[in-house]
Design brief:
- The chain has about 170 residues and is mainly beta.
- The radius of gyration is 16 Å and the shape is globular.
- The strands form four sheets. The protein has a four-stranded antiparallel sheet, with no helix packed on it. Strands 5-6-7-8 form a four-stranded antiparallel sheet, with no helix packed on it.
- A hairpin with a 3-residue loop joins strand 2 and strand 3.
- The chain has strands spanning about 1-5, 10-15, 20-25, 30-35, 55-60, 70-75, 75-85, 90-100, 105-110, 125-130, 135, 145-150, 160-165, 170.
- The two termini are about 15 Å apart.
Length: about 170
Amino acid sequence: GAARHPHPHVWARRAGGGAVRLWNRAAGKGGTGYARGWPRREDAKRMPSSRCSTGCGRSVGWHPDGRSVSVGTIAGKVHVYEYYEYKGEPRLTCIKELDLRHEWISDIKYSPCTPDDPSGGRYLAVGSHDNVVDIYDTKKPNAEYELAGTCKGHSSFITHLGWSKDGQTLYTN
C-alpha cells in the first residue's frame, strides 16, 4: 500500500492501525513523515491521533494532478483525501468516502493523462476481492466520484490493475 506522488520525492503509504502517512524521500536523505489527518476547517488543530483513519487501508493511489490520494480498505471502502498546504504545512483531509464493496480493496489507479484529458484522473479504477473492478467518474459535474460502471466476470479476486497509456484499456490480474 504505497504510491508515489507526481512530485518525485513525496510518497503516500498506509501504515499500521489504519493510518495514511505522507513521506518526503529526498535523494540521500531518510524518509521524513509529514501531513497527517486534519478536520476540514482551515484553522483547525491537528487531530489528536495525528493520523488519517482509513479502517485498515491496504491500497493507495494518487490522482495525476497530485491534489488528492485515494486509499482502499479491507472493509471494501475507498477514502479520498485532499492534499493541500495551509500556512506552509501539508495536510490531508477526507473529502469523499465510497462504500460499494464488502471485501478488501486490493488496488486503486486513476486514469492517465491523455490528449482528451490533459490533467488525467478522469476515472478511478478500484479492484476488490469481490472479483470486480468498479470505475468511478471523478469529474462529473455535481456528482464527483459517481459510479460509472463495474467490470464483472473475473474468476478470482483482483490483485493488481493498470490503465493503458491512452486510458482506453484497463488491465487486471
